[in-house]
Amino acid sequence: MSVRTYDDESPISPWLIRLPLLFVSGAILLLLIAVMLVSLFQLSYRERIVPGVSAYGVDMGGLTRDQARSALAERFNYDDVVFTFRYADRFWQASARDLGVSFDVDAALDQVFAIGRGRGLFFNLVDQALVWLNGQQVTPTIRYDQGLASVWLSRIAAEIDTPAQDAQLIIDGTEVQATPAQNGRWLDLRATLQQLDTLILSLQPGGEITLAVNETPPIAWDAEAAAEKARIAISSPLVLVAEAADGTPIGPWQARVDQIAALLRVVKIDNGNGTFRYDVDINMEPFRAYLTDMAQGLISTPANGRFHFDETSGRLVVVEPSRSGRTLNVDETLARMEVAVFSRDNRTVPLAFNHTLSPYHDAVTAAELGITELVSEATTYFSGSTSARRTNIIAASASFDGIIIAPARPSLSTASWVTSHRKKGTSPAR
């Protein structure tokens, strides 16, 4: 029988060998499991969006492309979006499609599917982990063709745009018509498009936009004042009046309404600030020929007065008043007519005359004429004359009574006067 003896104390513990083996084996196992899980995850999400991705508030994680398309189309359907454009109490509505606005679903899907892909396995895994932990919001892609929006707004502009209307004054015969001014307006396409851009970029599902409309003032605001002036001018005829040399009324003569209307003129007056106003004047020259013809019958020549010389006082005593001559002042008469034609209350025009004093008018003095004393006296007797002869002598004497006779030659500086007395058949002449 043989006997074997063993030492109870081994120099190396078997766990020192087992534990590393177990750790390495566990690590390899965990790695294999992780690889399997990652592979399974990558395989599962190969056609799906990674978790944590959202677009426009819609959770897109785990959705296929078709599912994501349906979710986005339901949540963000621009085909049904309506934009309202308003001006004052008018409004116009246009769909997003009309304005060239559309939601590019494919671009949005491409964007969400690109998350966590395309950068290599390691970086893809990092990206996917970060998205899963923190989430990632994708902004939908909106396509906007501003050219289409401009074309659509141009149609509104065709309804809104109105040129400024100046006030108008028209005189047609005896009809006077004044039309008021109107502001022009035009749609500011650029400013309106800027509002639309802001609304679209903020991804608002439609909304209301106040159209940017500018106003253009007219150049001539008011024609009513000038129109009223024209109406006054043709409200009634002008009446021309005058007096004869002896003071008796003559005339009247009339300038008819149709004659006045034909001579009215509408004029524009510059205000000096880029605007103008209307006025109405009249050309009275066509009446000149008529007044000139009339003037021939209105001329009166001056007539000298007749005087007696008072030897005591040395003054001339008027025995028959003088009469001034006159001629029609055509220019002044036309001026008076021009004033009266724009007067509603005073339509009567006194003719204007130029007056000429006679050489020996009532105010002339003996001293001015150089009459200072009796120069000579002669007496002729006609006793025994027939009654007819005496009558003739008296009539002839009376026709010379009081007449002033100027000196016959320039050397004579005094005038003479003739006076007659009728007494007891005698007619002394002095």
Description:
The chain is of the alpha+beta class and 430 residues long. It is 35% helix and 24% strand. It has helices spanning 15-44, 65-75, 105-113, 121-134, 146-160, 189-201, 224-233, 257-263, 286-295, 330-341, 366-369, 387-400; strands spanning 53-55, 58-59, 82-87, 90-95, 101-103, 136-138, 142-144, 168-172, 175-179, 184-187, 207-210, 213-216, 238-243, 249-255, 264-270, 276-282, 306-310, 315-320, 325-328, 348-350, 353-356, 403-405, 416-418. The strands form 10 sheets. Strands 2-1-6 form a 3-stranded mixed sheet. Strands 4-3-11 form a 3-stranded mixed sheet, covered by helices on one side. Strand 1 and strand 2 (58-59) form a beta hairpin.
Q: How many H/I helices?
A: 12
Main sheet: strands, sense, barrel: 3 strands, mixed
Low-confidence runs (pLDDT<50, min 5 residues)? 410-414, 420-430
The neighbouring-strand order within the major sheet is 2-1-6
* Average of per-residue pLDDT values: 80
Secondary structure class reads alpha+beta
Instruction: Sum up the overall morphology in one term.
Output: rod-shaped
